Amino acid sequence: MSIPFFPYKLFFLYIEPLSALGGAIYAGFLPKTYLKDLALTNTPSQFTREVDLPIPTLMTLFQLANLYLLFALNEHLVLSSTHDIKTWKRLLFGLLVADFGHLLSLAPLGPDAYWRLWEWNAMMWGSVGFVYLGATTRICFLMGLGLGGPDQGRARNNLKTK
Description:
60% helix; mainly alpha
């Protein structure tokens, strides 16, 4: 048996990895745009005009793109290769920790960045809104929501059929 709750499979195997792949492309191939968009709409940005990025900044964005690619590949390839709930929970717990780290990285924008969604641009919707969705979905999975009740006992720990 596979992961029984279809929304988990759809989100973790396809939607989120494709989103991370989009982030990799954006950071790797459009680094100036990526930096310019990485702020609230009313936050001044030093990247509003076309300038060459400092080499360390460019290198950092390429490394970020690589990590987005790793995220996409790990999530899709590992989760699509197993039906073991323990493996799913361990990988998704690691990604939940990364969700909180990602949200914490936005702290320099101030507390408004986390809740003033009417000021969010597309990048902020991805960096905050989509991360909220991913973290919430992971928490639901880790709590066992949609994975069957306690009467299924062993099936909750290993989703393989005999």
